[in-house]
């Protein structure tokens, strides 16, 4: 026993001195806080008179059924990646939307706005979609502008 105890005895360890004042919380608290900017206020609170901002979900689709009273069925098409092939495929989903004036017909483009539940399946309100001016009007303007600029009539206009 005395042999093993003499082998296990180690020389006394010297105490280590820490040169970094930040180790083990030895620095004052003021050095550890973030620097404050003169432009930002310490606690910016939103004004109490404004209501909280909530994101409203809007979708756009085509009316596929308008036979029910005050209800239209709207088909929304979106592009999503295929889970295996990673190619973008069209995904369709039908939503029931509230149409209080029965003004939408089959084929109309409408925008769906999220609202409180109106019935078991209706949680959207159908509103008219803003018209698209980019593709249809620019191509018609380009067709009209080109013959006038060149001064040559189209073949369909020649007799």
Question: Can you walk through the features of this model?
Answer:
The protein is an alpha+beta fold and 159 residues long. The protein is 18% helix and 27% strand. It contains 3 helices and 5 strands. It has helices spanning 2-8, 29-32, 134-150, and strands at 58-65, 71-81, 88-98, 109-114, 122-128. It has a 5-stranded mixed beta barrel with strand order 1-2-3-5-4. β1 (58-65) and β2 (71-81) form a beta hairpin. The longest helix has 17 residues, at 134-150. The chain starts with a helix and ends in a 9-residue tail after the last helix. The model has no long low-confidence stretch (mean pLDDT 75). It comes from Liquidambar formosana. Keywords: Chloroplast, Plastid, Ribonucleoprotein, Ribosomal protein, RNA-binding, rRNA-binding, Transit peptide. This is Small ribosomal subunit protein uS17c. It holds the Pfam family Ribosomal_S17. Belongs to the universal ribosomal protein uS17 family.
Biggest sheet features:
5 strands, mixed, barrel
Element-level helix/strand string? HHEEEEEH
Spatially, the strands of the biggest sheet line up as 1-2-3-5-4
Question: Are there runs of 5+ residues with pLDDT below 50, and where?
Answer: none
Count of helical regions: 3
Globular, elongated, flat, extended or rod-shaped: what is the shape?
A: elongated
The secondary-structure class comes to alpha+beta
Rg, nearest Å: 36 Å
β-strand percent reads: 25-35%
What is the number of strand segments?
A: 5
User: Which percent bin holds the helix content?
Assistant: 10-25%
Average the pLDDT over all residues and give the rounded result. 75
Termini Cα gap: 123 Å
